[in-house]
Amino acid sequence: MGILIKMRGTIESILVIIVARIGDTLLTTPVFKAIKSRYPNAQLTVLAHPKRMEVLSNLAYIDRLDSITKRSAPWRGWFSRKKFDLAIVFGAEPELISYAQRTSTKVAAFRREGMTENPRLLKVALPHGAIHAVRERLLLTTALDIQANDLKLDYIVSPEEKAVARKWLDEQGIATAHPLIGLQTLSFPTKSHRNWPLSHFSELIQLTIDKYPTARFVILGDEASRIHAKGLAEHFPVAVSIAAGTMSLRHSAALMSCLDMYVGVDTGPTHIAGALGIPMVSMYHCAYPGRYLAPLDNPLCAVIEHPLTGTTVDIAASMADISVASVWNALDTLLCSTADIDDPRTHT
């Protein structure tokens, strides 16, 4: 996809709308960086889902962060002048695109069936074949002559959040445990086929403590993850602590930033781990290959693809087919290779 339009005149204000889940929201951070690099003096406003926008907090290149939904959008932007020189909309919801057209001089969005014609709306074609999710999102900026040089995801933990995480680790008696490994055992309910069997996680824990007797594990996620992984804590009462369901998303992410290692299935916290840049092993279902979703430019990320990847996208394929041995080998290799890296718990 080449440049479709060169923006004329001074660009002083830019809007990006991204109403999506945690992972999809974070996958857009390279877009924000590219925009700010191309227009460093422009004010960048990002409107995101009210329950997901917090993952974008503290990012220096976002000047204003607020929320929007397809339900609130139709009521907004009717009585103000054009506030933005350019708007980029991710998603197909006509309510969001209409809001952007009311408030912006020029709007860019991916072409979807049924989109109305508007001379101010630049409709960018989606790729014909599968490409990495970050590169797909950057097609919109490329069409506007905005190039990206940094493909890494970003997430910033505040000092206050870090302090809460350290306090929790101290209360669990694992503040100085090494290696400290986080486990994300569940994806969200509608994508349960992406879950790796709990019995496999149990075998992985045993293999790890056999070689690394001082290893400790933290179960991450929400209340469902806490209930799901309760058996692991009961089977390994010394080695496993459960943080899932006990803290906010931001504090959970701060806890992740203190880990030596992360192991998880394809879900929002795995994208957060990638954005934090911590050593990680991530597992992907053949319907959603890691080649299109795993963190880019992250040498500390070991991607474990389902053995049927490239042959089928059937969600009936079982994640049990990803062997414990393959995950253990990746985990052990990363633990050995990162042994000399500074303890992340000492970083502010």
Automatic annotation (TrEMBL):
<dbReference type="InterPro" id="IPR002201">
    <property type="entry name" value="Glyco_trans_9"/>
</dbReference>
<keyword id="KW-0808">Transferase</keyword>
<dbReference type="GO" id="GO:0005829">
    <property type="term" value="C:cytosol"/>
</dbReference>
<dbReference type="Pfam" id="PF01075">
    <property type="entry name" value="Glyco_transf_9"/>
</dbReference>
<protein>
    <submittedName>
        <fullName>Glycosyltransferase family 9 protein</fullName>
    </submittedName>
</protein>
<keyword id="KW-0328">Glycosyltransferase</keyword>
<dbReference type="GO" id="GO:0009244">
    <property type="term" value="P:lipopolysaccharide core region biosynthetic process"/>
</dbReference>
<dbReference type="GO" id="GO:0008713">
    <property type="term" value="F:ADP-heptose-lipopolysaccharide heptosyltransferase activity"/>
</dbReference>
<dbReference type="InterPro" id="IPR051199">
    <property type="entry name" value="LPS_LOS_Heptosyltrfase"/>
</dbReference>
